[in-house]
Amino acid sequence: MTSVSENITALPNEPDAEQLNAWDRKYQLHPWCPMDSWRDYDNMLVDQAEGIYLWDHKGKRFIDGPGGMWCVQIGYGRQKMADAISTQVMRLAYNSPWTTTTEPSAVLARKIAKMTPGDLNNVFFTTGGSTAVDSALRTVQFLNNRLGRPNKKIVIAREKGYHGSTYLASTVTGKERDKNRFDVESRLVEFLPDVNPYRRPKGMSVEEWCDEKIADLENAIAELGPENVGAFIAEPILCSGGVIVPPPGYHKRTLEVCRKHDIIYISDEVVTGFGRLGHWFASEDVFGIQPDIITCAKGLTSGYLPLGACIISDRIMQRMTGPDQDVLFSNGYTYSAHPVCCAAALTNIEIIEEEGILEHVREVTPHFQKRLHDLIKYPIVGDVRGMGLLGCIEGRPEEDGGNLEAQRKLGALLDEACEEMGLLVRPLINMAVFSPPLIISKDQIDEMFDILEKALQKVTDDMADAA
Ligand SMILES: Cc1ncc(COP(=O)(O)O)c(C=O)c1O
Predict the structure, then answer these.
(1) Ligand 1 centroid distance, CA of 268 (Å)
(2) Are 431 and 394 in contact (CB under 8 A)?
(3) DSSP state letter for 176
(4) Which of 116, 207, 358, 400 is the most buried (most CB within 10 A)?
(5) What is the pLDDT of residue 187?
(6) pLDDT tens profile 96-132
């Protein structure tokens, strides 16, 4: 890609980078925008991408450590994707999902139903992850209203869980700092404490920690009354919360508790779906459970176009449908089952199958996880954790009494050092998380972790100098 810096040369009438950044600052409101400084800084102007690499407007190359926003599974610059999208645009760019259907959406629904565990056979297409979660939660409400138990609506969710940015999805999101100025429907949700084994008290075994987490769920149900609890929502791994892998056995045991009380188990696989852990879905293949609803998005199209899905079990559908009432499932979007997005998803799946990307992930995972876990040798690192091609480094300062500024500083320093050395990471307070494109080779994994090691050493030295 030596031609990248030549390609980005501005044409006479094209705005240059400075102008674009100025317009961006002035007119564009980005997600999670800091209100005190949003007009003060330039977001990186990304210009091109290929494989696992991005180039900024100056032609500098970066490894895309977060894989976009945990989504670019097949990597960037895929001609086959471009062709499939353009072909579908010319064939049929849009249809109303209310009254018509299309080949891409019908074929995709069938494919997804065959990938999901058990009787999860009913695919409701949405526009992304938040709307998939929103649809799952509305399904629970619809079901319980239909069954004549209107109080069975409370959703049990977890601290540090992230489920999206609609009103309902943000209501069940457990990241307090994300929603301190927005209203949520707090009567509808109950949060369970952190499940992170790293947070367990000194001297407690991981097994005892798991028992405690199951007791948290059982106690919450007992306190709220099972007749008032409609659903439990859980990411198999809490990704945006810092790649938190619950203790072994947790998933199966939480499902058993939910089954006992007729509580719908929603497995939010927006990040873990479509290959991140080396399987189409992680719920059953990795954690041994068959949930009632799975939500997915992101990797479904590898981020090439927006699409999500809420996949509902036959068991739930049977309880929701019937001839006794004239009821509509009045949930949906203008862009549900968008034919171009479905065509992109089908091509994405085809590429993953043809290139054996799931197998590749399983093959390179031990190397990725070994390089990740080696980082614990740096004293500024408190914890490293991950699974599949997901990883997180957590800095040590958090242990110093929760000083937010010190925590943020460590995250920011690491982010800065990595960026300087050509690696993008996703800083989360005092953590950095990774979910590179799944096509990453073993050599590229080394390239990524070599940079991380250098960056950690630099931050260590800089912090020592500053002390
Ligand atoms: C687990 C999980 N659920 C839901 C969402 C929301 O997805 P979207 O941003 O596509 O609406 C995200 C986004 O990061 C996520 O990580």
Answers:
(1) 9
(2) yes
(3) G
(4) 116
(5) 95
(6) 999 999 999 999 999 999 999 999 999 999 999 999 9
Any atom of ligand 1 within 6 Å of the Cβ of 269: no
Nearest to 437 by CA among 71, 55, 49: 71
Mean pLDDT of the chain: 93
The CB of 271 under 6 Å from ligand 1? The reply is yes
Residue type at 57 in one-letter notation = H
Regarding the beta carbon of 270 and ligand 1, being less than 6 Å apart is answered yes
Q: Which of 130, 266, 295 to mutate to test ligand 1, by most ligand atoms within 8 A of the CB atom? A: 130
C-alpha angle 101-78-116 in degrees, rounded to nearest 5: 50
Q: Which two tokens stand for residue 259?
A: 């089954």
Cβ–ligand 1 contact at 426 (below 6 Å): no
- Please tell me if the CB atom of residue 235 comes closer than 6 angstroms to any atom of ligand 1: yes
Q: Cβ(313)–Cβ(292) under 8 Å?
A: yes
Task: For residue 130, report the distance from its CA to the centre of ligand 1, in Å.
Answer: 6
Average pLDDT over residues 259-282: 98
CA separation for the pair 139, 317 (Å, rounded): 10
Is the CB of 371 within 6 Å of ligand 1? Answer: no
C-alpha of 107 from chain center? 25
Question: pLDDT digits over 57-85, tens only?
Answer: 999 999 999 999 999 999 999 999 999 99
Answer yes or no: is the C-beta of 394 below 6 A from any ligand 1 atom.
no
Contacts of 86 (CB under 8 A, 6+ apart): none
Domains of the chain and CATH, by start: 4-74+356-466 (3.90.1150.10), 81-354 (3.40.640.10)
Q: Contact, 57 vs 47, CB < 8 A?
A: yes
Q: Which of 14, 247, 245, 270 is nearest to 131 (CA)?
A: 270
Instruction: Decide: 134 in ligand 1 pocket, CB within 6 A.
Output: no
pLDDT tens digits for 301-326?
999 999 999 999 999 999 998 877 67
Is the pLDDT at 399 greater than 70? The verdict is no
